[in-house]
Amino acid sequence: MSENKERIVLDVAYQPQVRAKTDTKRIMLDVIIGLLPAVVVAVIQFGWYPLVVIASSIASCVFFEWLYRKLMKKDCSIGDLSAVVTGLLLALVLPPSAPWWLPVIGAAFAIVVVKQLYGGIGKNFLNPALAGRAFLLASYALLMGIWTVPKSLAGSVDAVTMATPLSYLYSGAAMPEYYSVGKLLIGSRAGCIGEISSLAVIVGGLYLLVRKVISWRIPVSTIGTVAVLTLIFGHEGYGNLDWMVYNLLSGGLLLGAFFMATDYATSPVTLNGQLLYGVGVGALTVLIRYFGGFPEGITYAILIMNLCTWAIDKGFRRHQFGVSREDIAAEKAAKKAAKEAAK
Amino acid sequence: MSHTFKGGVHPSYMKAPDVPMTVIAPPPQVIIPMAQHIGAPCIPTVKVGDYVTMGQVVGENPAPVSAPVHASVSGKVVAVEKRHHPLGDMIMSVVIENDYQDTPCTDMKPLTAEQLRDPDAILQRIREAGVVGMGGAMFPTAFKIRGGIGKVDKLIINGAECEPYLNGDHLTMKRYPEQLLKGIELVRIASGLDKAYYGIETNKMDAIRILRSHYPENYGIEIVEEDVKYPQGAEKMQVKAVTGREVKPGGLPSGVGCNVVSTRTAYAVYQACYEGKPVIERIVTVAGSALKAPVNGLTRVGTPFGYLAEQCGGFVKTPRKIVLGGPMMGICATSFDAPTIKGTAGVLFFTEEEDRDVEKPSCIRCGKCITVCPMNLEPVFMYMYYSKGDYENMAKYHITDCFECGSCSFNCPARMPLTHAFKTAKLMFQAKAVKEKMQAEAKEAKK
Question: Does domain A24-146+171-315 have CATH number 3.30.420?
Answer without folding.
Answer: no
